[in-house]
């Protein structure tokens, strides 16, 4: 899989992150406890932690293990979120996060549709899927709007350490061809 470094949609540019994005990413969402509530990581305590996340993301991109795109609005280069592709042979999982002031404007649906559409064009990819906490209806709705079908509940599937110390149930959604 060789994803492009830049994907353009109607209102967004999805692009490979840069270390220079760290201050905006920290200010916009990695430190926000409400945004990170359903994430697998704790809110970042300082800019250094966010830099480390970006560094790791760029390393995974170079290694072909994961491709995280900064989500930016067309009229500004500031990273307001992230959407990531995790390849695993013939299947790819996706994950995403968006800064709170931008919620409920359809941005992540737009980003997810664009990456799903690119992935569906790849001849060796047969399944695109995502999971979300059963108490995160906005995320489930994004996956439905991106064309995925709910396949059920994976019980005790994901650790969401900002909610509980015990593994939580997740919905799983997928689109296949
Ligand atoms: C989940 C998240 C990515 C959604 O991004 P977004 O750009 O706001 O999503 P969209 O605007 O494209 O779509 C959101 C949909 O959820 C709906 N929604 C929002 N809050 C909801 C709620 N509490 N209950 C039910 N539906 C809800 C919206 O109405 C909208 O659906 P509609 O178009 O049918 O009205 C964003 O809220 C976020 O970053 N949350 C924190 C991180 C996170 O949870 N990431 C996902 C981990 S699996």
Main beta-sheet strand count, sense and barrel state: 8 strands, mixed
Helix content: 25-40%
Mind telling me the CATH superfamily name of the domain at 6-128? Gcn5-related N-acetyltransferase (GNAT)
CATH topology grouping of the domain at 6-128? Aminopeptidase
Which geometry do the CA atoms define? Answer: globular
User: Into which percentage range does the β-strand content fall?
Assistant: 25-35%
Give a count of the beta strands, DSSP E runs of length 2 or more: 8
With strands numbered from the N-terminus, the spatial order across the biggest sheet is 1-2-3-4-5-6-8-7
Can you write the helix and strand succession as a string? EEHHEEEHEHEE
Q: Judging by the overall fold, what is the CATH architecture of the domain at 6-128?
A: 3-Layer(aba) Sandwich
Q: Would you mind describing this structure in some detail?
A:
Helices cover 28% and strands 33% of the residues. It has helices at residues 22-30, 47-63, 107-120, 137-145; strands spanning 6-8, 12-15, 67-73, 79-88, 91-98, 127-133, 149-158, 168-176. It has an eight-stranded mixed beta sheet, with helices on both faces. The longest helix is centred in the first third of the chain and has 17 residues, at 47-63. With 177 residues, it is α+β, with helices and mostly antiparallel strands. It has a domain at 6-128: Aminopeptidase. Helix 1 (22-30) crosses helix 2. 28% of the residues are buried. It binds coenzyme A.
Write the layout of secondary structure elements.
Blueprint: E1 6-8, E2 12-15, H1 22-30, H2 47-63, E3 67-73, E4 79-88, E5 91-98, H3 107-120, E6 127-133, H4 137-145, E7 149-158, E8 168-176
Parallel strand pairs: 5-6
Antiparallel strand pairs: 1-2, 2-3, 3-4, 4-5, 6-8, 7-8
Helix pairs in contact: 1-2
The chain binds coenzyme A.
């Amino acid at each position: 899989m060789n994803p492009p470094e830049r994907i353009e949609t109607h209102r967004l540019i999805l692009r490979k992150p840069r270390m220079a994005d760290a201050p905006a990413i920290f200010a916009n969402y990695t430190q926000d406890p409400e945004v990170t509530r359903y994430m697998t990581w704790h809110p970042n305590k300082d800019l250094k932690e966010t830099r480390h996340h970006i560094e790791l993301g760029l390393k995974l991109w170079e290694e072909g293990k994961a491709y995280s795109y900064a989500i930016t609005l067309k009229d500004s280069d500031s990273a307001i979120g992230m959407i990531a592709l995790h390849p695993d042979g013939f299947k790819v999982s996706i994950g995403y996060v968006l800064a709170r002031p931008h919620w409920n404007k359809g941005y992540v649906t737009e980003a997810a549709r664009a990456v799903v559409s690119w992935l569906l064009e790849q001849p060796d990819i047969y399944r695109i899927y995502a999971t979300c906490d059963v108490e995160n209806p906005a995320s489930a709705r994004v996956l439905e709007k991106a064309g995925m079908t709910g396949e059920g509940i994976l019980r005790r599937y994901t650790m969401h350490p900002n909610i509980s110390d015990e593994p939580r149930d997740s919905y799983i959604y997928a689109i296949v061809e």
